What does this fold into?
Amino acid sequence: MSTTLYQQIQEFYDASSSLWEQIWGEHMHHGYYGVDGKQKKDRRRAQIDLIEELLQWSGVYSEDAESLPSASILASPYQSEQIHPPRYENILDVGCGIGGSSLYLAEKFHARATGITLSPVQAARAKERAQELGLSSRTHFQVADAQAMPFTDNSFDLVWSLESGEHMPNKIQFIQECLRVLKPGGTFIMVTWCHRPIENLPLTVDEQKHLQDIYRVYCLPYVISLPEYEAIARQLGLQNIRTADWSKAVAPFWDVVIDSAFTPQAIWGLLCSGWSTIQGALSLGLMRRGYESGLVRFGLLCGNK
It folds into this structure.
């Protein structure tokens, strides 16, 4: 990863993560609003539902066989039960943020979870949250480049990447690294921002400009289409590949974020967070309009090594 892009991503998340947690909580990703995107639900419930729906869609577990994590992770009003013995004992969360998914999965599967991020602020906060939740002994967070991970081959049962692939300047190298550290038979789950498929119609000049604006605001090198990701995964030997487009299911997320961004609490937090965070808030409509036009897509890919 280039030094300039590395620094841009690091500085963006160093500056914005505290505000995001203050306004939104620990999960720094989309929410799930039903297949057609029309379900009305609490925004935190929607984010938890996204994780649960991904686990079921990917075949990691059956809803009948597992239960939700304990109240220490979910908090009221969600209930907990004793889960069944874990199938996944060692999990890697690539682009872990402040540990939302890592801690959730560690608790759900009673597993060891490792999270990596480019942001020292995020890694430190994830460690604090792990300690607060009594999960320090089973979790580890560190600053690391996802395209050159500091782990040995065949280390993890499950490699989880939830909305981090869009930051990767070399998509092939990124997926290659994820598969390198995945154990044979292990599961890879990637969810990432994409643009629409372009096999039948190349991106227009206006669409390219729209994407460039998104790249500039959110520190992205570029995004590709879901069919292109699938082709890369096949090229690298991933087995049992499945893909899905959940754009409709998550699109309402941006309306909710926009509504929450302009409360007095959020505005004050923005002013204290610096220009990059302010610019991100002012540009939320870019993503909403991207979903509305069909340009921006929410792509899922999973498979086994």
